[in-house]
Design a protein that fits this description.
CATH superfamily of the largest domain: IHF-like DNA-binding proteins
CATH class of the largest domain: Few Secondary Structures
CATH architecture of the largest domain: Irregular
Strand order of the largest sheet: 1-2-5
InterPro entries: Hist_DNA-bd (IPR000119), Histone-like_DNA-bd_CS (IPR020816), IHF-like_DNA-bd_dom_sf (IPR010992), IHF_beta (IPR005685)
Order of helices and strands: HHEEEEEH
Function: This protein is one of the two subunits of integration host factor, a specific DNA-binding protein that functions in genetic recombination as well as in transcriptional and translational control.
Number of helices: 3
Distance between the termini: 27 Å
Helix content: 25-40%
Organism: Actibacterium mucosum KCTC 23349
GO molecular function, one term: structural constituent of chromatin
Radius of gyration: 19 Å
Family: Belongs to the bacterial histone-like protein family.
């Protein structure tokens, strides 16, 4: 599902809301998650999962084409850990 499909699904399920308002709500949620992660915070959505940022140290990598050594800088990458409810649902386990 892409963002526009999510917006359309929410708008269809909530006919009392205008689509432009649903779009604003969804965009605000994503912006808040991105902002929190950019600040180094963890974002947890109960039953769904948690978004966090992991630091990858600088290292020496290899250029796959030439095999030459290449210095790779330190970087921060997004990380998602699924919540128990989501994991159970994906595996066909009924919630308790």
């Amino acid at each position: 599902m892409i963002r526009s499909e999510l917006i359309q699904k929410i708008a269809d399920d909530n006919p009392h809301l205008y689509q432009r308002d649903v779009e604003r709500i969804v965009n605000t949620i994503f912006e808040e998650i991105i902002g929190a992660m950019a600040d180094g915070d963890r974002v947890e959505l109960r039953g769904f999962g948690a978004f966090s940022v992991k630091k990858r140290d600088a290292r020496t990598g290899r250029n796959p084409r030439t095999g030459d050594a290449v210095e790779v800088e330190e970087k921060h990458v997004p990380f998602f850990k699924t919540g128990k409810l989501l994991r159970d649902r994906l595996n066909g386990i009924e919630p308790e």
